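To illustrate this point, what follows is a protein record of this kind.

___
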Amino acid sequence: MDPDKYQQAWQAHETQTRVTIHADLLRKEMQRDQRDFRTVVFWGDVGEAWIAILLVPVWIYLGIATSSPWTWYLVVPALVWQAGFVLVQRMRRRQKPIEPDEPLLGCVERSLAELEQQIWSERSAFWMSSLPAGILLLVYFAHATWLGSDDWLDALGYAPLFALTIVIFGFIYFMNQYTLPKKYQPRRQELLTLLASLQDEAGENADDHVSLPALPFRDGSLRTPGYSRARVTIGMLAAVMIMTVTVGLVVFIFNTAPYLFSEEGYPKKSPFAAVRWEQYQPEVRLGEEWFKLVSLDELPAAEIVAFSRRTYGDRWRKRFEEDLVELLTGMKHPPRDQVTLVVQSLTSSETQVREDVPMTYANRRAIYDAADKRAIPEPQRKRVARAAVSIDNAEQFNQRVDEFLQLARVKTGFSGVVVVARGGEPVYQGAFGFSHLASRIPNSLDTPFRIASLSKQFTAAAILSLEAEGKLSTDDPVHRYLPEFTAEPYRRITIYHLLTHTSGLPRTPEEAARHARWDAMSRAPTPVNDYVRLACQCPLTFEPGQDFQYSNFGYRVLSAIIVQITGEEYADFMEERLFTPLSLRQSGVARISQPSDEARVAEVVSFVVQNHRTREPSFVSTDSGRNYGTGYGSGGIYASANDLLRWDRILADESFLPAEQQAKLFRPVRKHYACGWIVKKSGLDGRLYQTHSGSNGGYFSKMMRIPEDNLVIIALGNVRQTDEIDEALEQLFRLCRSLPYQDL
């Protein structure tokens, strides 16, 4: 016989060999195996649902701890869904208890059905459970990347994070599809074989024995090991350890990710990579070099520091270093992605202007990592209420005012002049600081200062003088002189509306693009008619005459009306018709060409730090970058304290304007505003006062007239108006009005 045929015959004989097993024994083995299988499935479901539920509070805690954006919390409903999916599947797969006398065939069919159902559940778990969480996690990554990137190129740097997430979930899917056949196929195949054999034997024979083609369970493929309590405990402890490591990893990623946000949602950016302190003076590192920070986007460093100290108390240094965007936003000066820095060398008095310095997350991260524990600063001295001192007691009054201003000079960086006069005669005169640091020229009563919004009273007086000459009427519509105002709703605006801020024109453009244009116009030579055209592009905030809105636009439009009527440049007209005839020799209008004769105007200085040994404040020169000539009638005038004192006498004598126009100048319309003046009764002493103040790119000014007492108070300065200087001026003017006040 051919050996090959012999081998084939032998194999055929082997396959026909059958094993006979007692049906009751086989049924008991099947039931035990079925219980073990159910135990494995049960604890697997418990573990998956338990981990998902436990991750919910952990995920919420991480979101709060890392101040994550709102998309972080989208994963929470996905985790709840994941746990719910498992629980729903458990309910759908709820099995009847195993009956001891259940037929063998039914036992095998039940086991096969439960196995098939488990295979389906594990295959669909990825799509119904894991994938939703993965998609929402990618949504969070996309949102955080958008918030944390300076531009699209910067955003591309996060591509590896997205790729890693996709790879991880792809690996989970692959392992799910790869391991399922290896995990369940042997058991499934043996159950199918056993089922086919039982069906061939017509179920259970009369003799309680079953003939099978081979011995079942010979390789243990049917049997599933049961779970003891020890194994379950160890498994859960392992799951806790894995989760702890995962949470730690997530926290680490968030602590090092550049798109961290504070609880208020401000991006954690900085234009410098390190900050250190010399008392209250911040020194910053740009590249590898250290500088004293003078200003940021025209905000003096001293002002930023003062705001931080006042707002955040003992944590002011930390806020300055780590939450600069939040700090500047709180000061109503939110920074853009690029800022302008004015810095001073540590080895010389040379200052540099660094434009377009990027605000980056990497810089803030470097500051955060390098920050040392700060010592708690000494508590601020509690301010004390002081009794009023009468102006009639000239010696005591002068001593008290001078004492107050000397302290203000040291504590707030006050640099400027103060005049208090009654009946035109000075009662107090004081000058502090320098008008030009390099040449050490001190401020004086004849030093011209840019008076910012005090300019409006001169523009108003000029308009009223033209009315007195019959060249216009304040009731005239603006479009009679400026055709740009012909269209609705601008054609209903009158000159008087502009004078009293009741025109509906905004203070400055509110729409972002137009506001950016306004900022650009304030830095470059800009004809006044450009402001007229821009004004007619801005929506009115209310119907003309129906409300009040302080508007720099309105007074620039008034400047254009003067130009249109007189045919002269605004600066020329004011010089020829007001300043020269009235002998205001140190006054004038800044010109957009910035001529050299304006060099006599006090330059802007920034308060740096108080020297605690000499008690002398330290200043640096600061170029604000503004073109003051573009302020025209709203804020382009400069004047000395002595000139303003002369101007007060001119108004008191009523020698410049006729009675009708003089009355109109000081007649309030809405919000106590008249024409370039605020006129109201004091809530402190009931006296009527006429006042106005201004600040503009490093200058401050305030003038108050009290006609009943024939008193005028004038304060001018060439340092940026801070909250501390604001408060100092408030208390100073109370002191000068013989009212109780608070010291500094």
Summary: Residues 501 and 550 are 5 Å apart (CA to CA). The chain has a mean pLDDT of 79. The chain has 22 helices and 23 strands. The chain has three domains: 15-256, 274-370, 415-592+627-718.
